[in-house]
Amino acid sequence: MSVKASSAKDVVLARVREALQVPAPPPHLKSHDLQEAAGISNARPAGAVGTFKPLSIAPLDVARPWLPEGGQTPEERMHILCDNLKRLKAEFHRACHLQAAAELIFSIARQRDWQRVAYHRHELVDPVASALHCATVCIGEPASFDKRALEQCDAGITACESLVAQTGSILVSSATCGGRSLSILPPVHIVIAHIDQIVATLEDALHDAKVRHAGRMPSMLSFITGPSRTGDIERILVLGAHGPKELIVVLVGESP
Amino acid sequence: MQIDLFIPCFVDQMTPGVGLAVTRVLERLGHTVEFRPAQTCCGQPSFNSGYWDEARSVAIRALDVFEGAQAVVGPSGSCVAMMRVFYPQLLAGTPHETRALDLASKTFEFSEFLVEKLGVTDVGARFPHSVTYHDGCHGLRELRIQQAPRQLLRAVKDLELIECDEAESCCGFGGLFSVKFPMISTAMAEVKGGSLARTECEYIVSSDPTCQLQLDGWFSKKKMKPRTIHLAEVLAGGDA
Amino acid sequence: MSVHDATTKAALPAEAKNQFLHDAAEHVRDIDHRSFVRKALGGYYVTRDSQKAKYRDWEHARDAAALAKWSAVNRLDELLPLFVTNFEAGGGIVHFARDAQEARTIIVDLVRASNAKAIIKSKCMTTEEIHLNDALEKEGYVVVESDLGEFIQQLRGEPPYHFVFPCMHVRRGEISDLFQKHLGTEPTQSPEELTMIARRYMRQLYVDADVGITGANFLVAETGQISITENEGNARLTAALPRVHIALSGIEKVVASLADLAVLLPMLATAGTGQPMTCYNTLYSGPQKNDEPDGPREMHLVLLDNARTAILADPEQRDSLHCIRCGACLNVCPIFKNVGGFTYGTTYQGPIGSVITPHLRGLSDWNHLSSASSLCGACTDACPVRIDIHHHLLHNRRNAVRASPKRLEHIGHQLFAFVAARPWLFAAGGKLFRWSLGFLKKIRPPLLRQWLETRDLPPAPPKSFRQLWKERS
Ligand code: SF4
């Protein structure tokens, strides 16, 4: 880091400390209990920098009961997830075993005459990719990554870390789902997941990711919620702005 | 109950009938109504223009005027919001803060006073017309009054209440805003007035005389038919 | 005069205000435009309401979102250094910038050091705030905005009209003409086809670009990740394919923990566009790791102050730093809907822009935005993080008076307070006013004239309430 930048850092951090000398009132909340809790905790003596203790309760603990439902049981979660994916205009399939998933993707690929499909090494993805009759591009070693070749592919197949019932989101990471581009560059994104990967809420998905990658977060974690879209032209919805036009989710496993 | 009228300056000078209607309704319900002639204005024009020192002196005077009142009731969401919401802010940290909070706790807008405080929705009125209700922004968002006037209207005999599609939109009055930025203010009146007119109701009921000024002014200029009427005047109307 | 000029000019006092008055008057006359914008927002209200209904209690959820931002902003002294440490542990490099000039210099230097030929950019209002594209173009770099709306605005040579919906004021036919002129494509009236034209055009640019520039929506202190929210996938591509990723963010975007995002991400989407989540919500913790197949080799994060610490130092308005730039306050604002985005002449339009612009660019030149409001409060009700937006407009008005009261106006208010303190004088003044109103309407003094141009005034009643009351008893 340059000398200049580090001095800017010192200046900005000093301004921040200085600015926070005077406490700010808590926001106007609907909940009286919370308002009170926030008010009391905010009573810090002027000049006591760094002692701001907002609340004994985390915002998420406050919000949990009020956010959209994620489902209590596996059945409920499955139901909410399907409903959300449909609403998001994602294509959704169930396959009782991996073999069935492979056949499904095979027939989609043939039907659409895909020439080249990209994938990454993963126990759920390998059997699907190897059943394809078209050419395949395996995204793996950094040294062999070829963005131009990937750009030519008709579809990308990835695994995922979890599926979030609450929002219909799919969590992918650069460490476990074939890097950053595979799930965004090809015009079709196929996700092969196991039904056990469904979680109720974003909170669960974030928590699991933190535990899974303890101490070493992948350089990218991305929640994908439906196919790419834009409303920039007259606020009219168009799918496939820059990312995939289609998102195909295949859930493998017997009904929960 | 002993009730003190809070008659905003605009009502005093321009729409005194609204004050009389409020009195009639409250008296009909068996309450004693008082008017303290020392009252003048709540200070909102100065407050909204940023002249808080001047507004503060007016506010402190209002605290003196209404000293000892049991309940202060006014026929304007906007002016009541000034007393209830903004006096405590304006006087925070001054020796008058407690008195401001005290006055705030017993000041009510007319419709909320009837419904929330007196528990009355049917005041025995009859008004054989179709009406739509215009929410004044201060009543709606500073005082959170939305259902009370509608409950009162629904209980009026022979009255038909129709909601417009922009019920929560501002009419564009905004005090001095209406003359400092007349083009924006008028554009807002167009939107709200248009929506109200589309209901094809005979009357537009409001709880804020200054919203009425704006809407009637625009309708009249446009030679459009609907006219506004204050909620108190509807409720004071002919006993069923 | 083009609107873009208005954003960069306005150096002389009162110039920004006059421009505002002029543009507002022009704009409200354009009924077609106003109804076009209104119609475009119509769909938003429907999807927003149906998505809000999925929350078991949206109002309580707002409490939580407000607390998350309140507690983070008020602990910025602790969380900002923590974030920096954690982010740097992931291999990214942090640069602090005191102001816009410093941020521009840092980014231009980084671009130069990377030997970049082509730069791709995803939507980021903070780069608009510091006029980054102008700075890069002056150095001879070609910067392409990849977000569809921003791309359209770039081709039009205009700043964004709305900080979430940049080209919501542009009709499809105009976009078709624009693409025909700049990209040589066939005319079309289909939004779908127009989107595909941009998609096809942009694809090779992603692959060829050496540097990708993005913003950030949240900085997660606990894990040192930056979070980027988008719908099109352009930010994902911008941060995936180029060798170097540069992100620019205001320092106020810090949140304490990853769990806070479980509240803020869905609420940002619901308030902003009525979605359950936007399509892509991505966390970046640094450049490509050595066991990952792709990604940029370098990642730089520029953390910008640019008067944010001045807002932080004002406890009354500190909550305006809670803003997550969802745009909900614009979408419900009757002023925005009637005067349009350009009239503001600011980077951040609408109610929140009126609150913060005086801090960013000076109160005396920009207080008129705070005056140009009926204080209806629709913005405050819409804000997912419960910023006291419309009351801050009152605070700005008060601060402006404190800083430099206008003499005549001041005397007027003093006179008013004097009269209000004397009931007999008040009554007499009222009488005089009522008695002379008919005459006043004829001579139309200022203020009354502004009223009468578009609205009638009823005749004054013969007696005031206080007179009638006296007669009654
Ligand atoms: S002020 Fe609130 S409503 Fe407006 S953009 Fe910011 S977060 Fe959204």
What does this protein structure show overall?
The complex is a heterotrimer of chains A (256), B (240) and C (473). Chain A is α/β, with parallel strands linked by helices and 256 residues long. Chain A is built from 8 helices and 12 strands. Chain A has helices at 3-19, 32-41, 59-63, 74-87, 98-111, 126-130, 147-151, 202-212; strands at residues 91-95, 116-120, 135-139, 155-158, 162-164, 169-173, 188-194, 198-199, 220-224, 229-230, 238-239, 246-252. Chain A has a 6-stranded parallel beta sheet. Chain A has a 4-stranded mixed beta sheet with strand order 8-5-6-9. Chain A is globular and about 65 Å long. The radius of gyration of chain B is 17 Å and the shape is globular. Chain B has helices spanning 9-13, 16-28, 44-49, 52-65, 77-90, 97-105, 110-117, 137-142, 147-154, 177-180, 182-198, 209-221, 231-235, and strands at residues 2-5, 32-35, 71-74, 107-109, 130-134, 160-161, 203-206, 227-230. Chain B is 51% helix and 12% strand. The longest helix of chain B is centred in the last third of the chain and has 17 residues, at 182-198. With 240 residues, chain B is an alpha/beta fold. The mean pLDDT of chain B is 96. Chain C has 473 residues and is of the alpha/beta class. Chain C has helices at 3-8, 15-29, 31-52, 58-73, 76-89, 100-113, 125-129, 132-138, 148-156, 172-183, 191-208, 234-238, 258-273, 308-312, 328-331, 334-339, 350-361, 363-366, 368-371, 378-382, 389-403, 407-420, 423-443, 448-454, 465-472, and strands spanning 93-97, 118-121, 142-145, 211-214, 218-220, 225-230, 244-250, 254-255, 280-284, 298-304. Chain C is globular and about 90 Å long. The N and C termini of chain C lie far apart (64 Å). Chains in contact: A-C, B-C. Chains A and C meet through helix 1, helix 3, helix 7, helix 8 and strand 9 of A and helix 3, helix 4, helix 5, strand 1 and helix 9 of C. The structure holds iron/sulfur cluster.
Tell me the count of domains of chain C: 3
Query: What's the CATH first level of the largest domain in chain C?
Result: Alpha Beta
Widest beta sheet: strand line-up of chain C: 1-10-7-4-2-3
Specify the number of helices of chain A. Answer: 8
Overall average residue pLDDT of chain C: 94
Tally of strands of chain A: 12
Q: How many DSSP helices of chain C?
A: 25
Task: Please mark out the parts of chain A with pLDDT under 50 across 5 or more consecutive residues, or reply none.
Answer: 43-50
According to CATH, the homologous superfamily of the largest domain in chain C is NagB/RpiA/CoA transferase-like
- Give the count of structural domains of chain A: 2
Of all protein chain pairs, which has the greatest interface, and how many residues does each chain bring to it? A-C, 99 and 124 residues
| CATH homology superfamily name of the largest domain in chain A | NagB/RpiA/CoA transferase-like
For the terminal residues of chain A, how far apart are their CA atoms?
53 Å
Helix and strand run of chain A: HHHHEHEHEHEEEEEHEEEE
CATH topology of the largest domain in chain A: Rossmann fold
Q: Determine and state the CATH class of the largest domain in chain A.
A: Alpha Beta
